[in-house]
Each structure stands twice: as structure tokens, then as C-alpha cells.
Amino acid sequence: MTQQATGSTSAPAAQQPAPGAAANREQVVAAAIREISHIATLPEITLKIVELVESPKSTAQDLNKIISADPALSSRILKVVNSSFYGLPGQIASINRAIVMLGLNAVKNIAIAASLAKLFRGGELTANFSAKHLWTHCNAVAVGSKMLADSLRLGLADEAFLAGLMHDIGIMVEMQFDRAKLIEVLQKAGADSKGVPANDWLKAEDETFGANHQDFGIALCEKWRFPKPFVYATGFHHRPLELPNEARTIASIVYVADRMAAMLEGGFRQDLLVTDIGADVCEQIKLDQIKLDAIRKILPDEVKNANAMLA
Ligand SMILES: [Fe+2]
Ligand SMILES: [Fe+2]
Predict the structure, then answer these.
(1) Whose CA is closest to 235, among 170, 185, 283, 175?
(2) Residue 301 C-alpha to ligand 2 middle, in angstroms?
(3) For residue 36, how many C-alpha atoms fall within 13 Å in the half-sphere facing its CB?
(4) Region of residue 122 (left: phi > 0; alpha: psi -120 to 50; beta: else)
(5) Cβ proximity of 29 and 8 under 8 Å
């Protein structure tokens, strides 16, 4: 396949045709990430956990040791694993037990989710947009992504959940980098009373920032040294089929979940001009209409459950 996965060279031809546009985009993104690096930090412990779980030599004991040294994180994880979301309400009293029951990966994801929540701060920018609204949307996309991965029996449910949770983090980079510009994007995209945009959000971002939230998302995931699937999900959730074939799965799942979540009552959908789910993307992940309808039906309840857990 072709090498299209960097995401930094795909400026829409219409608005930045000049040679060097891609270089400008890279500069803008690098400047933003530099500028916000004091805010957009994951706690050291979270980065340690990511590193540890990625290492093939790590054991449950190693993870237990790191988490148990942080009482706040420990209690947070126990609260989550004992919620109805994991189907084991009130049964898990120790981190060790949580790791045994849910696995290293799931516990890692809970720890990361707990740290990510703190990044979605900054109040309300317009009547249609607040960091909290975006976080609620990201939770819904996470839940939908997990359900899709489960339904497709891909063994990627934990990864899909976290990818969904992170997918629009580029918008938070924009918010922390330059609030005034994000307000400009919101105004350019426009929205009716239901939050349905009038104009293309990504185009408005490209015009205003010189880059869009997918570019910022890629850069943040790379800065945090997150595994590739998260780079793909944040950077390609609006265009998963631009990735090489072997890298499309998680980004495609998040693409579908994003559109389903946008259709929920009160769901954030400013960056989606249309919420149709492309048949080509469904084909890519072998998602048929029956599975899709089944998930759509129970998604609202599952999201409510998860909101109670991640709030
Ligand atoms: Fe998005
Ligand atoms: Fe989204």
C-alpha cells in the first residue's frame, strides 16, 4: 500500500495549494504542542503504565506495584472496575484482583481514562461547545467503539475503547493553544439548535489554525509515545480509508462509533457535516447492518452506564 499514514501532508488542495503548505501545517502543530506541553501532560504514573504494558516482559505484579503506590489512582480504578460497566459490581477489593479479572490492558486503559478526564477542562466556549460536552461525546464514542470491537470479535475491545476516548483530543489541543481561534472555528462551522453544523468543521480548522484536530491529535499521541493505533484513531477518524490497509481497523471502528455517538440526543457533532456511515468503511471492518442496528439500539443505555462510571 502507499504510505499515507503520516497525516501531515494531506492538506485539502482547495485551501492551501501553495507548495510548503504541508510544512506550514507541521510548524503550526509543533508550535501548538510546544505551547501546551505544560498543560497537556499525562501524569508520570500514566506514562509509566503505558510503557510497562507495552513491554513484553512486564507482569501483573509490576503493574500492581506501580498502581498501588498511588492511592488516588487505586481507588479510582477500584470504583470503575466495580461499576456495572464491567459486569462485576462490588466484587473486586484489590488492584491485584482487578488485574486478574480484567487483564493488564483493561486496567491500563482505566488508568489512562482517569488521567485523560482531567485534560478536558476549560469551560464553555459557545452555547454549543464546552470541554465537558466534548468529553461526554468522547465517552460515548469510546463505548460505541468497544461495542463494535466486541461485536466484530476482534479481541481489540480495550484498545478500541481508549482510541474512542482519545479521538477528538486534537480539539482540546486547539482549545488550550488558542481559545479565540477555536471560537472562530465554531463560528465558521456554525450550528443550529441541535448542534448540526452548517459548514465543514475541518475546513474551518484548516483555514483558522493552518491545521485540523486530526493533525493536533496525531502530534499529541506521538508526544506521549502512545502506540500506533491511537495515532491512527486520532489522526484518521474522519478518513480511515486513507490509511494503509493493515492500519485501518481501529480508525474505522472509531469512525463508525463517532457517527453513532453524534446521533445520540445532545451528542456533539460539530465536526461532522453528515453522520452517514460509509458503506466502504463498514465493508473494511466487515460490519453488517444487523450488527450495526443492534449496537445502535443499546448504545444510549450503555453510554449512560459508562457516564456514571467515568464522571
Ligand atoms: Fe473528530
Ligand atoms: Fe468525534
Answers:
(1) 170
(2) 19
(3) 26
(4) left
(5) yes
> Rounded to the nearest whole angstrom, what is the distance from the C-alpha of residue 261 to the centroid of ligand 2?
8
How far is residue 292 from each of residues 117, 234, 279, 282, 300, measured CA to CA in Å? 28, 22, 12, 9, 14
Residue-level pLDDT at 267? 85
pLDDT of residue 2: 38
Ligand 1 centre distance from Cα of residue 288 (Å): 23
Q: What per-residue confidence (pLDDT) applies to 19?
A: 57
Residue 8: per-residue pLDDT: 41
For the chain, which domains are there? 21-40+123-310 (1.10.3210.10)
Burial letters 151-183, b for 16+ CB under 10 A, else e? bbebebbbbbbbbbbbbbbbbbbbbbbbeeebe
Q: Which letter does DSSP use for residue 277 in this model?
A: P
How far does residue 271's CA lie from ligand 2's centre (Å)?
7
Which residues of the chain fall short of a pLDDT of 70?
1-20, 39-40, 89, 308-311
Residue listed under C-alpha cell 466486541: 150
Q: Tell me which ligand sits closest to the C-alpha of residue 205.
A: 1
Distance 217 CA to ligand 1 centre (A): 9
